[in-house]
Every structure is written in C-alpha cells, then in structure tokens.
Design a protein that fits this description.
Elements (H helix, E strand, L loop, with lengths): L5 E5 L3 H13 L3 E5 L2 H11 L3 E5 L7 H10 L7 E6 L4 H10 L3 E4 L4 H15 L4
Parallel strand pairs: 1-2, 1-3, 3-4, 4-5
Helix pairs in contact: 2-3
C-alpha cells in the first residue's frame, strides 16, 4: 500500500456505505461518506478526498451530475472517481465516462476487488505502478 488516502463514499444505501467504510478503514485509509450528490459537494472542500466512490442513482443530485461538478473544479483534477451502479448498460457507462469517472464497477461487486482497484489507481497516480 502507498499510504493512507482520503476516500469519500457517496451512496444513499447506508448498509453499503458502512461496509465500504469498514473495508477502506481496515486498509488504512481515512473515510468520510455522503448520502447524495449535494452532500458530496458540501464535503469536497473540507475533506479533500483523493478518491470518490460514486453511486450513480441517488436522490437530489445523481452521480453523473455530481461527477461533472467535481471535474469542473480544477482543485479536484487529480481526484480519482470510481463509479458504482446496478445499471451497467453501455449508455450509463458512457455517461459516467463522459462526466469524468476513472473507472466503472457494476453492483453487486466484491468489496476486496474494489479496494484492490482503488489501490491500483492510487499507485498509478503516484507513479509507482
């Protein structure tokens, strides 16, 4: 592992948020959570995440629009965005890619696989991969 990262989990499913929080904390990371896109945007400046785990289908502000807002802010240019969704059709994947997500993972997924993919993305961002 390359060291502790700041990870913001954005999902309206509380059990999944708790599961991911536990998994990333056990991997040595600092974790915060947000229940929707508006909550996410409110936490971006204060938490300054290295990684955002972004659900797509959420109330108030969905993951596509939230990802676009994050990418419009130059302060978050290096922030890794991992999109999660139960919808895995090509249109959904393309919308998230166009919005600026680094990778897309379909729900349900293996938590260990997500933690591993995030570690790979962090390592490649730091130039160690």
């Amino acid at each position: 592992m390359i060291g502790a990262a700041r990870i913001l989990i954005v999902d309206d499913e509380k059990p999944l948020t708790l599961l991911l929080t536990q998994a990333f904390e056990q991997d040595g990371h600092l974790v915060a959570s947000a229940a929707d896109g508006i909550d996410c945007m409110n936490k971006m400046a204060s938490f300054r995440p290295d990684v955002v785990i972004m659900d797509i289908m959420m109330p108030k502000l969905d993951g596509v629009d939230t990802t676009r807002l994050i990418r419009r802010n130059r302060s978050y240019a290096d922030t890794i965005i991992v999109a999660l969704s139960a919808r895995s059709d090509e249109n959904t994947r393309q919308r998230m890619k166009d919005a600026g997500a680094n990778i897309f993972m379909r729900k349900p997924f293996a938590v260990a696989k997500l933690v591993g993919r995030v570690a790979q993305l962090l390592e490649s961002r730091s130039g160690k991969a």
